[in-house]
């Protein structure tokens, strides 16, 4: 057996019966649901510690969204943490990562009347995206780099 194969397959992993792997996958799904989607604590887990960990994961998401969309922090002020907690509790991070999370959070705030409609630029991009327009054009090949 090569060293590469030994790193890819943990010892004994191929020996586990299919039913054991399915049971483990099911238990992991229940634990994940408890941590990020407001699911019930799986048997044998301390509910208090799971709540602490779930709150920590929401806090991490909140910090990332604050870095991606500082305008939301400025607009909401002291309400940002509470509003994000209400949005994120029981809602896993959407596909697309932190930018999608920030977009969905802003959309939720806008639909609740907590944010004004997003102003559009002449090109149809949101105002907060203006500084990045040239970078986007460079990456898309629409303009050539200077210098």
UniProtKB/TrEMBL annotation:
Query: Which segments carry the region annotation Disordered?
Result: 88-126
Q: Name one Pfam family in it.
A: SCO6045_C
Q: Which domain of life is it from?
A: Bacteria
* Residue stretches making up the SCO6045-like C-terminal domain: 25-110
What InterPro entries is this protein classified in? SCO6045-like_C (IPR058711)
Biased composition, class Basic and acidic residues, residue ranges? 100-110
Q: What's the name of the protein?
A: SCO6045-like C-terminal domain-containing protein
Which source organism does the UniProt entry give? Answer: Streptosporangium canum
């Amino acid at each position: 057996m090569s060293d590469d194969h030994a790193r890819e397959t943990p010892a004994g992993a191929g020996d586990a019966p299919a039913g054991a792997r399915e049971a483990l996958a099911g238990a992991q799904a229940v634990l994940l649901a408890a941590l990020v989607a407001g699911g019930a604590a799986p048997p044998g887990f301390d509910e208090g510690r799971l709540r602490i960990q779930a709150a920590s994961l929401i806090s991490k998401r909140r910090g990332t969204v604050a870095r991606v969309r500082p305008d939301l922090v400025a607009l909401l002020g002291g309400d940002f943490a509470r509003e994000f907690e209400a949005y994120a509790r029981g809602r896993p991070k959407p596909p697309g990562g932190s930018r999608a999370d920030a977009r969905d959070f802003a959309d939720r705030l806008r639909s609740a009347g907590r944010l004004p409609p997003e102003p559009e630029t002449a090109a149809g991009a949101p105002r907060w995206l203006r500084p990045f327009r040239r970078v986007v054009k460079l990456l898309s090949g629409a303009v050539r780099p200077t210098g």
